[in-house]
Amino acid sequence: MANGKNLDLNNQQHQILIREQLERIVESSVFEQSPKMKELLSYLVDQTLQGNGERLKQFTIAIEIFDRGVDFDHQSDPIVRIQAGRVRRSLDTYYFTEGANDALYISVPKGRYVPSFKLRSEQDLAPQANAAVAEPAEIESLSPSITVLPFLSLAEDNQQQFFADGFSEELATELSRFDTLNVVSMYAMGDTSFDINTAADISQIGKQLNVSFITSGTMRALNNQMRIHARLYRSDTGQQVWAEKYTCDMSTHDLFEAQDQIIAEIVAELASSFGIIHREIYQSCNHKKVTQLSTYEATLRYRHYLMTLSKEHYHPALEALQQATEQEPEFALAWAMLAVLYFDADKLAMADIANASELGFECARKAVELDSNNQECQMALAMGYLSRGDQAGLVDAVNKVVTLNPNAAYQVGLAGWALCLAGEFEQGRELLANSKALNPFRPPWFALADILYFYTEHDFDQAFKALDQFSLSKLYWQPLLRCVLHIEKGEFAQAKSAYLKVLELCPDFNQRREHYLSAYLVCPNLKQQVTTALDKL
């Protein structure tokens, strides 16, 4: 954020703004499932605001946050460095998604632990408006390609080395189930004498295999526990962009099941729709003009739109995917994504496109015809059935989605979300829970499923709490749900205020209320409950 303005930490009002921004960040879905990351970021910000920035060294942080002793050695124990890296990546994710339009930017610059606080410029808040900046010719684009290097066992026990070898092979197998990811076998190199700890060798592996990402790790056994450290590197820079540790109980009666669970978490972190690989690539190409995008990069514009559901991100995604289908008409994924954009044009009033829903259904059918085993193609068809109110078709398509890849966190969660909108809360909420266990990173509109569930249970207080997670203030559904909940609680003044916001965001809502409600509330009883409430206003 070089164009941003630094805040004055001696200014009381600026301190208030920073603390309010910190609260928004730690309460976001990005940080929701990581209490330790919340604690670390809050500690770094608090110490800096108190004037103790000079104390923020690895030794102090290790003792005060990670319960290390005075004998802490950062060379042998990289806990602070690794967790700070996770906080940095999570902040990037937050500002890429829920905080895309936040005016105050908090970051933890690499190589230090004192946070930076800046007011973001208009240029930072609207990256699409600056697309005229040409991409430097010498910088090559990242691609969704990866190789899995053998995980290294730090013990001489052959059985543990066999476990490590098998783990690597299974990880590569599961990664290859993601249609958008090209997994290249490391054995294509022939010579495997490399040092993963050096950027030069990482770069060499990337060039030799023509991959943008490399994953590897180590395994260390202690009694009946196996500690697994997994890492992801960018081959162009040699930079480690992700790291996580897992513990496997080697005494379990089903070791394969324990291994599968860890691998499922790793692949969800790396390769799911909003995994670290796609986010890294998006950040590397989001300055390009639409005409400069590859077909894959066009899909990233779509994924960015999904996090905000805003018109400003909708139109670049639509243009990019329309271009992608023209350039590569056999690219099934582009047709699937285009289908969803057409559905949203109609259901969310994103654009005035004639027969948008029918166009969407045609695109979804075309996508499935091109690749019936593509999970996102089947999900696009499921969304088509949802838009038509076809519960049987929806359930059938959702079951295909989950069967194709149960480790694709976002797609599994989206399948559960769609089922909840159709009133199938038991199966839908189970899929959402599975998705969250794989990867807590999810778009804020997933909260709609919880809101509707608590609403049908007449637990309006819990529904309001779930509504706090629905942080898309530019989408008419957010004030609409707030309006309905206020009506149910007899709070008509607040309900009228919320309804005025609905009309501001969706001016023709009064005239097309039935259409807009039917677009998402497929369950007749649920739609009737909402309609009855609105009739009281």
UniProtKB/TrEMBL annotation:
<keyword id="KW-0472">Membrane</keyword>
<dbReference type="InterPro" id="IPR019734">
    <property type="entry name" value="TPR_rpt"/>
</dbReference>
<protein>
    <submittedName>
        <fullName>Transmembrane adenylate cyclase</fullName>
    </submittedName>
</protein>
<keyword id="KW-0812">Transmembrane</keyword>
<dbReference type="InterPro" id="IPR011990">
    <property type="entry name" value="TPR-like_helical_dom_sf"/>
</dbReference>
<dbReference type="Pfam" id="PF13181">
    <property type="entry name" value="TPR_8"/>
</dbReference>
